[in-house]
Amino acid sequence: MKVFAAIEVGSYELSMIIFEISVKNKMRKIDHIRHKINLGSETYATGKLSYEKVDELCKVLKEFKGIMAGYKVDAYRACGTSAVREMENRDIVLEQIAQKTGIHIEILSNSEQRFVNYKSIAAKGEEFNKMLEKGTIILDIGGGSIQVSLFDKGTLNTTQNLKLGVLRLKERLDHIHSSTSAREVLIEELDNAQLSVLYKLYLKDKEIENIILVDDYLTFFVNRMIGSDEGRYLPVERFKTYLDHFKEVSTAEIAQQMGMSEDNVTLIFISAILVNRIINLTGAKLIWVPGSNLCEGIAYEYAEKEKMVSGGHDFEKDILDCALQISKRYMGSRKRAETLESLTMAIFDGTKKMHGLGKRERLYLQIAAILHDCGKYISMVNLGECSYQIIMATEIIGLSHKEREMIANIVRFNHDDFKYFDVLSKESAIDRQEYLTIAKLTAILRIANGLDRSHKQKFKDVKVNLKDNELVLTVDTKEDISLEKGLFADRAEFFKEVFNVQPVIKQKRTLY
Predict the structure, then answer these.
(1) Are residues 399 and 496 in the same domain?
(2) Contact 477, 509 (CB under 8 A)
(3) For each of the chain's 512 residues, which pLDDT tens digit applies?
(4) Cα–Cα distance between 84 and 87 in angstroms, integer?
(5) pTM (2 d.p.)
(6) Which of 139, 285, 286, 478 is the most buried (most CB within 10 A)?
(7) CB count in 10 Å sphere of residue 510
(8) Are 409 and 431 in contact (CB under 8 A)?
(9) In what order do the strands lie in the sheet with 146-152?
């Protein structure tokens, strides 16, 4: 058994949940500590935190550290979300926190944060997979933004981030000094441009039955109304009844009924309006409120790493599905991508002892193979650079910003001249180890690309044999591969530079 603490430094509160994790009993909450601190309002407005807020943050984290000691915690993980991520001076603030409290806060990129939340829902087990059998949207409402992830028949179709977080909207409404009765119309005017584009590009003509809601305050309100802390299914008609109740009763009355501040009630109302807007856009019939939060997702990832839980959901498949949808959006060739993916995986798996890379790096290469030609949608001449820009501008849920940058560079250097570390490090935060990974995977992608130089998919399978200083790639085909052999040397040159091994093509002609 392990005792684990998950800490979320969120936009409007600090939260810590202590878990007991074991193979037999899985994950069990044993304590949940919350402290309201509005970090988001300052960050979104000024880009910085005041000294007072930093001091308060350190004071509470010190208390968290004392509580962890009392529970004899084996490990902890503290994660900061958009309020910390958007600080201009975040590195300075995080260093102060580490020095004063001993707690190191990890900044999650938006896609990492949403992926962890997504895992917290998947931790609910079969309920999650059952929901995804029909058209389903995961609506993740945060302080700075919302994430809309569409699943169609179990496949992640798209995920989009919109700057429509509840704190961000509240700040704008406070500047307008609007009445409660006018706020619904104002929120609709503020969100209309982004939601209209979302609908036209991604949701139109989709049959969406379910909404899975992930947030803090609206989830709390719904559970209080239902009378349970557990996840519940909520028909949209009943949800709209709750929304009508909000409109009819004053903020002060609801605050008194719920035992919370009026500011929190306002955040609930904004969340409810956002959910209602998504309902009206999609025609969804059912809302599932699983009661999940980021801390649960953090604990689930720890339990996975310690091999104390085994999820039934294939998260890697979701990442690849997302990459396939991006390729489709930019008119990528599915057959060509499948061929290149098959070739790169065969070469990667056949050269493990040589490159020394693992499962995660294999995923980077797989995604790079899928997205290898996305830039041609913009320019056939500047294919590498355009592919790089598309990948960097497109969120892939489950990948960090750094991981996405590595994949973008692999794709770019498949087409363009390779940039060595002294040059690449000046234009990005890539470190030396990440640079070497980019070089190795680029070398593999280049020779795989060379094996299908004609783009005619003459073979999909290749046998890889490493012998002395030669990498023999044996292809089984009756086709004429003169073009591939003739142009392969150029593609193989970089591989030889990276690994000091010469790739060669050997053709095997099977009689049928």
Answers:
(1) yes
(2) yes
(3) 999 999 999 988 899 999 999 988 788 999 999 999 989 888 888 889 999 999 999 999 999 999 999 999 999 999 999 889 989 989 999 999 999 999 999 999 888 888 888 888 877 777 888 888 899 999 999 888 999 999 888 888 888 999 999 988 988 888 776 666 678 888 988 899 999 999 998 898 899 999 999 987 788 777 777 665 545 888 999 999 888 888 888 888 888 877 788 888 888 889 999 999 999 999 999 999 988 889 999 999 999 888 887 766 788 888 998 899 899 999 988 888 888 999 999 999 999 999 999 999 999 999 999 999 999 999 989 999 999 999 999 988 888 889 999 999 999 999 999 999 999 999 888 999 999 999 999 999 999 988 876 556 666 578 899 888 899 988 877 777 777 776 788 888 999 999 999 998 888 765 44
(4) 5
(5) 0.83
(6) 139
(7) 7
(8) no
(9) 155-162, 146-152, 136-141, 210-214, 286-289, 232-235
The amino acid that residue 95 corresponds to is E
Q: Rounded to an integer, what distance in angstroms lies between the CA atom of residue 154 and that of residue 436?
A: 36
The full length of the chain comes to 512
The identity of residue 286, as a single letter, is L
Q: In this structure, is residue 309 part of a structural domain?
A: no
Distance CA 76, CA 7 (A): 8
Domain boundary among the residues 259, 291, 323 is at 291
Dist CA 232 CA 343 (whole Å): 46
The radius of gyration of the chain from alpha carbons, rounded to an integer in Å, stands at 25
Residue with tokens 């988001």: 40
Q: Is 31 within the bounds of a domain? A: yes
Show the domain range for 104.
2-110
**Within 10 Å of residue 465's Cβ, how many Cβ atoms?**
11
